[in-house]
Amino acid sequence: MTALWVTLALVATVALLLRWQRPAWYWMSFGVLFAVVRVLVRYSSVMDACGLTVPPPRWRLALARMTGRPVPDSKAPRILRLRPTRTGLVLRVKLRPGQDAFDFSAASDRLRHSFVMRNVTTREIRSGVVELRMTGYDVLKRVQMPARPGGGVMRVPVAMREDGEVYYRDYRQVPHALNVGATQSGKSVYQRNLVAALAGLNVALVGIDCKQGVELAPLARRFSALADNPDNAADLLDSLVEHMHDVYQLIRREQRLSADTPDAEITADIWDLPDGLRPTPIVLMVDEVAELALFATKDEEKRRDRIITSLVRLAQLGRAAGIYLEICGQRFGSELGKGITMLRAQLTGRTAHRVNDETSANMAFGDIAPDAVLATVQIPTDRPGTAVVGDSSGGWVRIRTPHLTLRRAVNLCNAHASRTPEIPALDAFRPVLPSLAKTPAAAASTVPVTA
Ligand SMILES: Nc1ncnc2c1ncn2[C@@H]1O[C@H](COP(=O)(O)OP(=O)(O)OP(=O)(O)O)[C@@H](O)[C@H]1O
């Protein structure tokens, strides 16, 4: 008997320790079982308390009255499926007549504490069927991405969402994005995660890093072109615009060829081109965009206008040519001068890390997802890497990136260096790696790269 008590005490201690120190492990070992039992046992009473039941039909009430039987209870939505996941539970229910998905999203906070879960989000997956995604612990406290997060063509895993799902950056769905945040909020780590995820794909990475290349130069082995000051950046962007026009010419040529063949697909963008003809898609990463928009002299002002015009052109026309923009900065508003709001309107993907004021949050979401502004302002200082992402559909979600060190990102880029494609139009901006530098002077004039 004593042995049993000792074992139980030991198990309870281990469970408490895990819950405190390793919530993900606690969830997988103990939490999931307790949560399943809790949800199943409390389901009817919780639905009733949250106002998610429907009264019995009148004919049943009348029948009960006539026959003197007890009045039938209100009915909760029928459980279709309860599935445990590595971060929580997914409960799928069939709505009763008269219920709608909005009832569930309005009750998500009540459901959260009634089922003792960390977070509950709801969505209607098809007419009359609602899915409740519940997380069992704070998945953003210590981000652990799944071992095989999946992905697809131009769709890469970047962070963990607060509902326990992986957040993917999908360039074909949302071609251009803006990433804002105060200093030390985690923008560079977000960008690093993007680079690391893209490194293994058939894609050309092009970087503009006006912090003298401090963020992107170490990853240069996987970059096809890199600019580390506004002068270089202006030339690089001009060349990229030229490359875009060449790709359009190629698409037009293919369209002319297929126009006379009745059954042939008409090419509208690079993804419709045959594999052998398709130019490599390009992701342009711009770090600290405000540096490109600032000027002190007349010449610098001309250069600034050239840069912003090229960026607007790429944002307006780049998608079909397979050029995608990822623009990063502390603020991105009209104070940066003409052309900025026009550019911002084209950057439909928005990510906002912690900001210092509501105006900065408005720069990210004011025009597309006003609800996300409050969520952005509330990001705590002690959680770098936490961000709110939204798009032009008005939806938004909290995410946090895994803490990818620069060392690991460099190793990943080096491991995939052989995948770095050559883009002839951008040849002049190819980062010269130490092994290729011929003289110390030549090496000094190029962006240094860590091995
Ligand atoms: N997801 C994360 N988890 C834990 N720590 C993080 C995460 N993201 C960033 N950090 C830490 O926060 C600090 C700031 O990160 P980062 O350099 O990415 O911020 P930033 O917004 O780019 O800052 P700046 O604009 O000053 O360059 C770093 O010390 C980094 O290690």
From TrEMBL:
Gene3D superfamilies registered for this protein in UniProt: P-loop containing nucleotide triphosphate hydrolases
Matching InterPro entries: FtsK/SpoIIIE/SftA, FtsK_dom, P-loop_NTPase
Keyword annotations of the record: ATP-binding, Nucleotide-binding
Residue positions binding ATP: G181, A182, T183, Q184, S185, G186, K187, S188
Every FtsK domain range: 163-362
PANTHER family referenced in this protein's UniProt entry, alphabetically: DNA TRANSLOCASE FTSK (PTHR22683:SF41), SPORULATION PROTEIN RELATED (PTHR22683)
Protein name: FtsK/SpoIIIE domain-containing protein
